[in-house]
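haha ok so turns out i had the wrong file open the whole time. this is the CORRECT one, sorry everyone. sequence first:
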Amino acid sequence: MQVITIESEAFQKLVNQLEAIQQKLNQQKETTPLSDVWMDNQDVCALLHVSKRTLQHYRDSGKLPFSQIGAKIYYKASDVDDFLESNYKKKVG
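then structure:
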């Protein structure tokens, strides 16, 4: 095990920089539009509570747009939201 020591002033400066980075990341999360968020198969399967095969059916039938890079498949969160909205059934009566 290696022990590294630094002055408390240098340590505090490092902590402040890390806090600033974390704050900036949190602000970006809050201001990122839904259309800019990309999700992979695992994320969408978990969100929709469906199997990989069902998700593949949605892709093959053109119900859910996607983008593919190599073997990895991605979906825009806004497209997933549109898919859910298009399948929304209001209660009648």
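Strands lie at 38-40, 67-69, 72-76.
again sry for the mixup
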